[in-house]
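pinned: reference chain
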Amino acid sequence: MEYRLLGQTGVFVSRICLGTMTFGGSGQERYRAIGGLALPQAKALVHIALDAGVNFFDTADVYAGGESESLLGEALGARRRDVILATKAHARMGPGPNEVGQSRLHLMRAIEDSLRRLGTDWIDLYQIHNFDPLTPIEVMLRTLDDAVRQGKIRHVGCSNLAAWQVMKALGFSAKQGLERFESLQAYYSLAGRDVERELVPMVQDQQLGLLAWSPLAGGFLSGKFDRASSDPEARRAKVDFPPIDRERTYDVIDVLRTVAKRQKASVSQVALAWVLSRPGVTSVIVGAKREDQLRDNLGALTLQLESQDLEALDAASKLAPSYPGWVQAWRQADRWPASTQGTST
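pinned: its structure tokens
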């Protein structure tokens, strides 16, 4: 297993993180389609991950209505101290008007509920799950800072925020001496590279950890889908998320198959290895319903894509030029004196 520093925490996390949205929810249609795993299956996956050196586990209070947290906590058992445990809050957890968002009222309650479900005294990485337009960022940050000082959480992060929202939060934390976001969890795959426009440069500049969720685009890059075939039992066939441009992604899958054949690897391993190779990526969050899926995903760590592989995958999936990126790149050469162009000291 390989490990990377998580932001500026001094904490090392495994490059593969086990996401547990597949845990629980057998009685809920959405989560049954995603996984609906009971405790025995959850325990098996957790112990395969632990045996492979995975020390990073991610969940959220909303997954299966809290059941994912409960099952993960029980599956870890006495190994809790060996891992970096991450969870998230923001989504609606009940019908009441205050059972959602990032108000002090909701976050304090959400932290206590997650601690209870996870069966732990502390959460290593507590992440806001989305942007709350109704709660000022400073209220949310002060609440999380209080929880750190109380010993209930160790570090804070965010998920699904825009670059300007993260920077606003970082600026307020720095000015007020509060705990800052140490990580950003964002969707990143060969089918969705929007993160590269603003978020990747931002996390690199601010030294945040970048945690990639849905690196297989909800299973669309798993090898089960192409123009000629699909798997009606696959998660992607039942839950069409995250959104993708199917025709464009079919072109990517064609290249993935070619690279996989050349590398003697699975399509999913190539897709994961590509995300692992991207600048700024700290850890890739993988989910699994079966033990063989998880073992296959873990195999991506040993796959070294060659330059021709990376070039082919980049060509098939690259983003269209966007403003102001294209004009800044166009004028970049003008910044260097003619006698030193392209050099640095």
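why pinned: The two ends are 36 Å apart (CA to CA). Residues 246-263 form the longest helix (18 residues).
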